[in-house]
Amino acid sequence: MGEASRISRYIYTVLILFIIWLFLTSSLDPQELTIGAIFSLVVGALTYEVFTERGLGNLNPKRVLYFIAYIPYFLWAMIMANLDVAYRVLHPKRPINPGIVECKTTLTNNVGKLALANSITLTPGTITLDVKGDRYFIHWIDVKDKSVEGASENITKPFEKFLKVIFE
Amino acid sequence: MVKRILAIVFILIIGFWMAKALDQVPFGQDRMLVGKYYLEHVKEETGAVNAVTAVVVNYRGFDTLGEVTVLFIASTGVAALLWRKKRKRTAKTEGSVVLTTGARLLLPFIMLFGVYIFIHGHLTPGGGFPGGATIATAFLFLYLAFTVYEVDHKIFEPLEGLAGVGYVTVGLIGLAIGGYFLFDWIWQTWGIGKENIGRLLSAGFIPIIYTLIGIKVGTELTGIVDNMIKEPEEGGQ
Question: Which one, of B79, B130, B72, B138, lies nearest residue B105 by Cα?
Fold first, then answer.
């Protein structure tokens, strides 16, 4: 996956910034829009080189659709994991079996790895400690499977099927 | 031990003394003398909805110029104290991929938010100083996440100077047009934006000055971080 052209990356950054500006001001006053457009262009020019590698390729409809679908999926996983941890806290015997496991990911893109690491951390019970190459070191509150394959099956796989489409 | 007890007694006496003095000021009552004038006239005189901004930039613009000068001196002072010919970053541990990618992704958003804060200084809380500090945070992020990152000094320091000169120039144009330094010529003489108080393009020169201050504070704090994070090379003096 090579880098997109500079123009495409620049336009993508400006577009994202302008959308953020719209959310920040929450007004469609032409003055706000003009100033917002100017500053999006300026900030975009300063930051597009570090911000994106793929440029407009990020706006592929399939990716956007998967991203929108990923939000409720992730929220559901988060709620279930929170309830699970609450159960462990309230249970008199406190059934925890903590440990650090190693997982493997098939994601190659850095942004995808970031999204996966954050998804893992935000679902309680699992915390990403470090990422090295395609290996994730994860602190798991209830270790069910110590092997790399087994842990990956439990922790990273459920998110990967979405993140693979969104970021690869 | 005796030292400590003496210090505590001394502080308690000072505290009692100050509490006694502040006791004279009734809380929650109208004690405004000048403040009332500001609140009543701020809109037609400066066009700003945010009275604090109007006071800070317009009525008492000298103070803000002084603050900007203090920051500039702080930045120059740090640079002078830590000056060496050969200085580079000596950090060796690159952040993990989570940290570096996160810093890269957040950079434009933090910068845009800083810009949002300073351009809306006359409408919402904030202004040039918080906005500039926010922008500096974005650079601090890059400095902390990447071991080799360094801002482009050929652009950065001139930009800092230009923003300061811009502030003084705005003031001097006011001197030429209105007769005193930092006279709000855009509002009082040209009357630009008179019909849309509360919208973005109003409040005379406040947005312009806050943009300049935002750029200045942002570059300055980044410069301080840059100076403090670099170490002299081995053997280099």
Answer: B138
Whether B97 and A16 lie within 8 Å, measured CB to CB:
no
- Cβ within 8 Å, pair A113-B101: yes
pLDDT tens-digit profile of B160-191?
888 888 888 888 887 777 666 666 666 666 66
> Token pair of B198, please?
């509360």
Query: Which has the closest alpha carbon to B122: B231, B72, B183, B47?
Result: B47
Q: Is A28 on the interface with B (CB under 8 A)?
A: no
Q: What is the dihedral of CA A129, A131, A132, A135, to 10 degrees?
A: 90
Domains of chain B, residue spans: 36-232
Mention every residue, 6+ apart, whose C-beta is less than 8 A from residue B225.
Answer: B136, B139, B140, B143
Please identify among residues 42-61 of chain A the ones whose CB lies closer than 8 Å to any CB of chain B. Answer: 42-44, 46-48, 50-51
CA B9 – CA B32 distance, rounded (Å)? 36
Which of B212, B222, B216 shows the shortest CA–CA distance to B78? B222
Q: Which two tokens stand for residue B129?
A: 């100083």
Model-level pTM? Answer: 0.81
Using alpha carbons, select from B198, B202, B197 the residue that is nearest to residue B184.
B202
pLDDT in tens, A130-165: 888 878 888 888 777 777 666 667 766 677 777 777
Contacts of A21 in chain B (CB under 8 A): 112, 116
Residue A149 main-chain phi, psi, to 5 deg: -65, -45
Contact criterion met (CB below 8 Å) for B135 and B145? no
Chain B partners of A48 at a C-beta cutoff of 8 Å? Answer: 108
DSSP state of A142: B
Report CA B218 to chain centroid distance, whole Å.
Answer: 8
